[in-house]
Amino acid sequence: MRILHTMLRVGNLQRSIDFYTNVLGMHLIRESENAEYKYTLAFLGYGPESETAVIELTYNWGVDSYDLGNAYGHIAIEADDIYGTCEQIKQQGGKVTREPGPVKGGSTVIAFVEDPDGYKIELIEKKGVGSGLGN
Hints:
8 strands; alpha/beta
């Protein structure tokens, strides 16, 4: 078994596609509409859906915002150069909510950004991925 995708409900599909492709460098893999149930799906990622986990953006027609609730945490993305990545995100109009730096009590370098709908995305410097944030 493997993780296939994470689904996020979005209020403006094109705005979200633009963020994930232009700001975070993902590729739009596929899009589909369901007219009967009035929603559109867009799948984005860094590689083929058959090989890597992807993000599913769900736009329910006519719904422009959601309450994110207090159970959602974040999506984590590996970054080769976290400092450069955050600068590029800012230059593309993205919002960095935690500047890059070591996690408190550890050495893993992380940062946080926010997508247009307010979802948090954690960037983890590649050399620290898998080592645990406290180490």
